[in-house]
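We close this part of the discussion by returning to an individual protein. The sequence in question and its structure tokens are set out directly beneath this paragraph:
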Amino acid sequence: MDRSTIIAGFGGQGILFAGTVLARAAMAEGQQVLWIPSYGPEMRGGTASCTVIVGDTEIGSPVVDRADAVVALNPPSLAKFEAIVAPGGVLVVNTSLIEAEPTRTDIEIVRVPCTSLARSAGDDKLVSVVALGALLARRDLVAISSVRDAIAAIVQAKRPQILAADLAALETGFRAASGVLVPA
């Protein structure tokens, strides 16, 4: 069974990083993965999104008409992607930047102040990592331990000094969406 996740927001919010982390964690668990980035020519501030499809068998198509999960980190992303969340799916909304209320009643809506939580975890650029933690609290896509390992593998190679902030952001998002302690 394939499960698709779209993470969307402004460039500079770590959209592609969060998608890479999710894809790498799924691969480490032996799942099939497609990772599809989408972004404009702007380095920061432009619109960016990332689609990650995870499956236990080969994935037949990269086309996502209905996403199982959408993470909307800014207002244009909510406007663009809310409609494609599959009935029964989940929509994670960054309430730090999005004031509009989602209109769907057939999906789970998880409201998390991702930007302010990222700032309190150590770096407001880790918005997408907070959102990924929130998503994992509501959907069993991969084990949070696999996500921690993926973050460590990616971050240790380039910027080991920010690893603690990344892991704190992940756990902060998880706690915000679940209200429970982060599993080991």
Notes: The mean pLDDT is 90. Residues 163-178 form the longest helix (16 residues).
